[in-house]
Amino acid sequence: MRDEKPPPAAAAAAPAPPRVTHRARIVRPQPQNPVFKRCGTLVERRGQSRGPPPDRAGAGGVAAPARPSGGEGAGMVLGGGMAAAAVGGDDAVVMQLGGAEGEETVVTVNCPDQTGLGCDLCRTILEFGLRITRADVSTDGHWCFVVFWVVPRSSSIKVRWASLKNRLMSMCPSSYSIPFFYRDVSQPEPGPLQFYLLKLMSPDRKGLLHDVTHILSDLELIIHRVKVSTTPDGRVVDLFFITDGMELLHRKERQEETCSALTATLGPSISCEVVPAEGFQQGFSSLPPEIAEELFRAELADTDSEVCSSPLSAELRKVRTTATVNFDNSLSPAHTLVQIVCADQKGLIYDILRTMKDCNIQIFYGRFRSDKKGSASKGSSGCREVDLFVKQVDGKKVTDPAKQDALRSRLRSETLHPLRVMVVGRGPDTELLVANPVEASGKGRPRVFYDATLALKALGICIFSVRTASFVCSISGLVFHSIGSSSFAPFQAEIGRQAASERHWEVYRFLLDDSKEFPLASSLANRNCVVDRARKTLMGCYN
User: Fold this and answer.
1) Are residues 151 and 208 in the same domain?
2) Do residues 200 and 145 both lie within one domain?
3) Closest Cα partner for 431 from 271, 307, 249?
4) Nearest to residue 475, comparing CAs of 186, 221, 276?
5) Do 346 and 398 belong together in one domain?
6) What 3 state SS string does 54-84 have?
7) Is residue 11 part of a domain?
8) Domains in the chain: how many in total?
């Protein structure tokens, strides 16, 4: 019996991980080496040499990743050019904030383990607009220790660090999930998500949809479905079905904060209302069969197809040849080593952990490194190296060649093109389609709508505003009529889900304005430009 909880690790900046050249081996810390005094086990590759596997490296079978250094513990003020405080203390989540703009913040998570926890943590970090530059993951199946080094993807993103800490804390299993702890029955079980409908009416202008999305993201409001409509008199009606990451939107103060933030940015001419979305269900998208087949196929096309415009740029064709996934069962008697080398991109670590979670592969030790020669945030493709010691859900190694091939194919697909982008014709109109796979748990990818609208704003493309017949829309007990006109153009941007290729996908559809300044229907080059800009924005080249 153990009568005390393992102490949380102090968070600080870590030394650069050793470069990996061929095979992984675990190096145990040596007291006489000052580097090893402040680090846990390190992963190196030294030719064909073999060392103790991760299951033999530490007490209880836990191979601890490199611990961050440079600070004396949680709650201390960091030295340097600018003071930086640590958020947290004796908690499962500790943050050591970067001292200046561009410096990494170190996020340490030390808590009981559960299936898919790493994926859930990465999704939340991605949701806050942060880029994970590197990461260490270690678990013995009962307790985990995870370190993320993160930076904001853009200087325009306002990160609420204290709120991020609280969100991550809420995802960590309570100590009573470990057998030697007693459960506190006073702690309530988490309930189902509460959906809300945000109704916004505003004068229309270029970039409006992205500006609203940016505000909602800063407020930690998660968009699950959007319906956008325009009227002939220059007004727009946006219906956002949202949840609150802070779980406070049921309060009047939180609703007023949301409307005040929108008014402060968009001006006093808008009207805003937040109400519960009773009975909300995720909508389903229905694409024509030939378009669905093109959008969801396993491999990307090098050239244009007859039904769509989605060619690969020269950069992406080069990236497609760089991704490698290898398996090694010789280093550990209990674990399979999965080695991944691929181009860096936005959400890459999330995509890898999501794939492992959906494929029922358990990660016991993992290290994610990036090549400093390139950076996706600067428009170039840096290289990302990943080492994962894994088991199947039955506790066995991944030795079956067929299972290895299936996992390799899935990982290559998710690391090369986790999101699908197309521009298609819808009668005389042009539509942008963006699709991403949904987790087996039903959760979608964060900030896809944000990035898609950012790309359209950068190109100066408006959501389609041509009029159709008048109608009345009734949602959640509210009735919305067209304003100042007898005609109304419904649903020019929407989010739905569709089943294809034995998976579920989240599909974003934008009906685009075909302007004289940027014609789409008559210009293949402009349609390709939309696809390329959207794809690169989603992959983190511009944010």
Assistant:
1) no
2) no
3) 307
4) 276
5) yes
6) HHHCCHHHCCCCCCCECCCCCCCEECCCCCE
7) no
8) 4
Tokens of 7: 């102490």
Whole-model pTM over 0.90:
no
Q: What are the pLDDT digits (tens) for 335-366?
A: 999 999 998 889 999 999 999 999 999 999 99
Residues pairing with 326 in the sheet: 339
Sequential DSSP letters for 484-511: SSS--B--SEEEEEEEETTEEEEEEEEE
- Angle CA 183–187–190, to nearest 5: 115
- CA–CA distance, 346 with 455 (Å, rounded to integer): 15
Contact of 215 with 202, CB cutoff 8 Å: no
Query: pLDDT tens, 481-535?
Result: 333 333 444 456 778 888 887 888 999 988 888 888 888 988 889 999 999 999 9
Residue with tokens 């244009």: 304
| 103 within domain boundaries | yes
Distance between CA 50 and CA 105 in Å, rounded? 34
Asked if the structure places residue 24 within a domain, the reply is: no
Helix (H, G, I), strand (E, B) or coil at 85: strand
Q: Coil, strand, or helix at residue 124?
A: helix
How far is residue 23's CA from residue 392's CA, in Å, rounded to a whole number? 22
Q: List the structure tokens of 110.
A: 């030390």
The rounded distance, in Å, linking the Cα atoms of 222 and 277 is: 14
Contact 381, 344 (CB under 8 A): yes
Instruction: Report how far residue 473's alpha carbon sits from residue 480's, in angstroms, rounded to the nearest whole number.
Output: 5
Please indicate, yes or no, if residue 152 is contained in any of the structural domains.
yes
| Domain identity same for 397 and 439 | no
pLDDT in tens, 180-204: 333 343 444 455 678 999 999 998 8
Residue 406: give its domain's CATH number.
3.30.70.260
Concatenating the DSSP letter of every residue in 353-418 gives HHHHHHTTEEEEEEEEEE-TT--GGGTS--EEEEEEEEEETTS-----HHHHHHHHHHHHHHHH-S
Residue numbers of the domain that contains 238: 196-278
Bridge partners of 228?
Answer: 238
Instruction: Identify the CATH number of the domain in which residue 508 sits.
Output: 3.30.70
Beta bridge partners of 505: 437, 498
- Copy the structure tokens of residue 240: 């956002």
Nearest to 352 by CA among 418, 419, 438, 436: 418
- Which whole-number Å values give the CA distances from 101 to 158, 262, 349, 514, in the listed order? 12, 27, 23, 40
Reference 28, options 47, 41, 46; nearest CA is 41
Tokens found for residue 333: 């008697």
Count Cβ atoms below 10 Å from residue 496 Cβ, excluding itself: 16
Phi-psi region of 393 (alpha: psi -120 to 50; beta: other; left: phi over 0): alpha
